[in-house]
Design goal:
The chain contains 25 helices and 31 strands. It is of the alpha+beta class and 894 residues long. Helix 3 crosses helix 5, helix 8 runs antiparallel to helix 14 and helix 9 packs across helix 15.
């Protein structure tokens, strides 16, 4: 690679990650050194401890942003970045020039700017941008470097400051009015609102039941087909969409005939008395265009639907694929493809599928986004000749391979011809009843040969998508083979999955797809939502927070306002809006609305914590005392007058019906009612329901010497009476003596067992420790012991990789005390949860080790207790020495 160097040293190229550094380094000559910054090198203070001392007394100190002086941010270098900063500074001092090759989006531009601000290089600094890590892309970038884009830096800084002001100003209000440790965020809170609103729809939903008929008919050819009843006497049979979800009633009852089970059975008998004929046959051609190549948002959605990946996992895998040169940059809103990518796709289509699958002209896709995220191309395989997935099967982890395969197929398919076929509808008449069936015939698969959205196997999906109907003509006589009544019940709207929530956020223009993974992770970690079979379910805390914000801080979670904020941040990035003007209007306000600070000050005193944290259960029958869900310091609970009841963490809000609430309150009342008085101690016995399930308690909750006993496996609380409770409290139970040693029956952590002089045996499932006799116990104790040996963790590695280029020792995957980790003989790195150890590659291992090494050695954590003990002991030693010294003086003078 030709490169003019001004001097005797080298050109330093700085990127974000070790993987990216390694890939780019392989394309450059010895006159270059490629090093990693390991992400951002500085940021706003993450805690009060990180705020510089000179700013701590300022009112705005906790924000890390000087709101009184043009919203100047206070940047600090985290401790774990200092070692790497020092190393980069040393490398710059020996370099002739510096190339900043961080990612081409706002975050990447900001990282480059922070590197210059912190390191202050005295040599020329140039910015390299590229959207794929290939030799040709790097060479092209070196031929046309540019300066840091101040507009992009301003946009990133404005976004960071806005998010800090929103989070740090609103979150304390939630701590005060709802419960501690809650958080608010510009996109996070809107995402929670969407999930909460969907749950409210489900809570307000009223199901409806209706019946129809399924007819099985055959023509003269003998081929059968199924058709559903659609009308009787000119009135339509309803479907789910015809019912009002909030009432369970038909929107227009006059237009429909609503059958019940009896009606449907009667119709079967009536219609079987008549003959059937084909009333109409209608065929309509259709064409189906291929989907656009992937953007960040559509990749996250499809990987979730098709592969079951979370947004976080998808982005982690895509990052790895990009940094190792397999795909283009993965944070993009653009659906554009470069001319060389289109050429590569078209060549493959021609060679693999033939000319009939290749359009006469390339296909171009226009992004729907107003300001397509800085990367100017869709996500596709890297290079001018796409690597076929099979050629990478053994180079990538299994999950990375599946994601690459998905990207590859979508890219190829987007340049293929349309799928073509026809839809066919047959309407059958039986007296005054009409039955209908629709079919689909694919005449030409087109792009579907390569890719079908939502399916792993395009060929199999093509067969599933076809519904072939027999060839019949109008007025053909048909035979009624069977008429079968079918019951239907309307369903509530489905909860959001990660994919569907991502789509809604994208459609509404809220946030950036590149941040959705972290947003989803945050709302899960903050317990605003939890997952139930892949669906996102809001907690009662989330519902309370959204109630507060809807009533008092409506703008902050308004969909239109939030999308407008995104547009304004885009305008800053294009240089169309001044950063200071935007921040001032957001925080201080303008003629149209109060700013954030004024709005919080104005509404703070109006908010009644009890009101926002009390959610009434509706439809309480007359004469029944009101029941409410209360959000307490330690979580939600039910309240009816003086009675309270626990709400199980895993219970979705839409399942907390009136009947369920009464049941939970009854359980709590029962827990407070004594089962009886223990004759031995004179204390009451209770059946309680705790965090880890039901248990027996001897004595009142405030008794110092109260005692608990777990229920046996399989025991149901409703079957536990006073006698059973006493038996459980009797454990460990004395059975008798054997050779002078006690034999006991006990209930342990791993289930019931018997014990004799240190020897134990687990009890069979059909033997209870409450009823076992001495003879049975001795018989069980004579049986061979089934030991579960504690396997000492082997020092043998689970997997050994190639030799590390840093330590010249093999990289090994080890099973440690706290889980699996990597080591190169010097550095140990734990494996993140989203990375499967089975799919770990050598490149991924080197990345994890490099990132861990860059953070420096772990600081030894000293407990407060240990520190206090050390402080207390020190004076005693000094005092002792002083006394000894005084005694010595007395002896000498005495």
């Amino acid at each position: 690679m030709s490169k003019a160097i001004s001097g005797k040293n080298y050109s330093l190229v700085i990127v974000e990650s070790p993987a990216k550094a390694r890939t780019i380094g392989a394309f450059l000559g010895k006159e270059f050194k490629v090093e990693a910054s390991i992400g951002h090198i500085r940021d706003l203070p993450g805690s009060a401890k990180e705020v510089p001392a000179k700013f701590k007394k300022e009112k705005w100190g906790r924000l890390g942003v000087n709101v009184d002086d043009k919203f100047q941010p206070i940047y600090v270098v985290p401790d774990d970045k200092r070692k790497n900063i020092k190393r980069l500074g040393e490398l710059i001092s020996d370099a002739d020039e510096v190339y900043l090759a961080t990612d081409e989006d706002r975050e990447g531009e900001a990282i480059s700017w922070h590197l210059v601000e912190e390191l202050k290089p005295k040599v020329p600094v140039k910015r390299l941008v590229f959207h794929e890590i290939t030799k040709s892309a790097i060479e092209a970038a070196l031929q046309s470097p540019r300066q840091i884009d101040e507009n992009l830096v301003n946009a990133q800084e404005a976004r960071r400051i806005i998010d800090r002001l929103y989070g740090y100003e609103v979150s304390p209000l939630l701590w005060q009015k709802v419960r501690p440790k809650l958080s608010a965020g510009r996109v996070q809170s809107v995402a929670v609102r969407l999930v909460v609103e969907r749950e409210r729809e489900r809570m307000a939903f009223h199901s409806a039941s209706y019946w129809d008929l399924l007819g099985i008919f055959s023509g003269t050819s003998g081929a059968n087909f199924n058709a559903a009843l659609i009308s009787i006497g000119g009135k339509k049979i309803p479907s789910g969409k015809d019912f009002d979800a909030s009432t369970g009633k038909l929107f227009k009852p006059q237009d429909f005939i609503l059958l019940n089970e009896t009606d449907a059975a009667a119709e079967v008998q009536r219609l079987l008395q008549h003959s059937a004929r084909v009333k109409t046959v209608e065929e309509k051609p259709y064409t189906e265009r291929p989907y656009a190549p992937f953007t960040t948002s559509t990749l996250q959605q499809e990987a979730n639907r098709k592969l079951g990946f979370t947004a976080k996992m998808t982005m982690s895998l895509a990052q790895n694929l990009y940094e190792n040169g397999y795909i283009t940059y993965m944070r993009t809103d653009s659906t554009n493809l470069s001319s060389e990518a289109i050429k590569a796709a078209r060549n493959h289509i021609k060679n693999e599928y033939g000319d009939e699958y290749l359009p006469a002209q390339p296909r171009y896709y226009q992004s729907k986004e107003k300001n397509a995220q800085e990367a100017h191309e869709a996500i596709r395989p890297a290079g001018s000749v796409f690597d076929k997935p099979e050629s990478l099967r053994y180079k990538l982890s299994s999950d990375a391979f599946r994601l690459y395969d998905l990207i590859w197929k979508r890219t190829i398919a987007c340049q293929m011809n349309d799928a073509r076929g026809f839809h066919k509808q047959i309407v059958t008449e039986v007296d005054d009843a009409l039955f209908s069936v629709s079919g689909k015939t694919i005449l030409f698969a087109g792009y579907m040969r390569a890719y079908v959205e939502g399916s792993d196997d395009p060929e199999a999906e093509l067969a599933d998508r076809e519904t072939l109907l027999p060839n019949v003509k109008e007025n053909d006589a048909l035979t009624i083979e069977k008429l079968e009544p079918k019951a239907h019940t309307t369903m509530p709207p489905p909860r959001y999955s990660e994919a569907s929530l991502t789509k809604v956020l994208t459609d509404k223009g809220i946030g950036r797809p590149s941040t959705y993974a972290s947003i989803l992770e945050t709302i899960l970690q903050r317990n605003y939502v939890f997952k139930l079979k892949g669906a996102l379910v809001p907690t009662w805390t989330a519902i309370a927070v959204i109630r507060l914000m809807e009533k008092y801080l409506e703008d902050l979670i308004d969909y239109g306002f939030t999308a407008e904020m995104e547009d304004q941040l885009d305008a800053v990035s294009r240089g169309e809006l001044d950063r200071l003007q935007y921040l001032t209007e957001f925080y201080r306000g303008d003629s149209k609305r109060r700013g954030l600070r004024a709005e919080l000050d104005h509404k703070k005193e109006e908010i009644d914590p009890r009101e926002v944290c009390t959610i009434p259960i509706l439809n309480i029958p007359e004469g029944t005392e009101e029941i409410s869900i209360r959000i307490g310091k330690f979580g939600p609970f039910l309240q009816q007058g003086e009675n309270t009841g626990n709400i199980p963490d895993e219970l979705p809000p839409d399942e907390l019906t009136l009947m369920k609430a009464l049941e939970l309150l009854q359980q709590s009342r029962r827990a407070e009612e004594s089962l009886g008085i223990d004759p031995a101690s004179g204390k009451p016995v209770f059946l309680k329901n705790g965090r880890f399930g039901p248990y027996i308690q001897l004595g009142k909750s405030d008794d110092v010497d109260k005692r608990n006993a777990s229920l046996l496996t399989g025991m149901k609380p409703e079957n536990v009476d006073f006698e059973t409770a006493l038996k459980l409290l009797s454990l460990p139970r004395y059975l008798g003596l054997k050779d002078g040693n006690e034999v006991t029956a006990q209930n342990g952590k791993y289930g019931p067992y018997v014990s004799l002089d240190g020897e134990t045996r687990s009890l069979p499932a059909n033997v209870s420790p409450l009823d076992i006799t001495l003879e049975q116990a001795l018989e069980i104790l004579t049986q061979p012991r089934i030991t579960v040996r504690t396997v000492r963790r082997s020092t043998e590695p689970l997997k050994t990789f190639d030799v590390s280029p840093v330590t010249n020792k093999p990289v090994r995957l080890i099973e440690g005390r706290y889980g699996k980790y990597l080591t190169d003989g010097t550095t140990n790195a734990t494996i993140p949860k989203e990375i499967s150890p089975d799919g770990l590659t050598f490149e991924m291992a080197l990345d994890l080790l490099a990132e861990r090494a860059a953070r420096g050695p772990s600081k030894r954590r000293v407990s407060r207790r240990s520190t206090k003990k050390a402080v207390k002991k020190a004076p005693k030693k000094k005092t002792k020495k002083k006394k000894t010294a005084k005694k010595a003086v007395k002896k000498e003078t005495g």
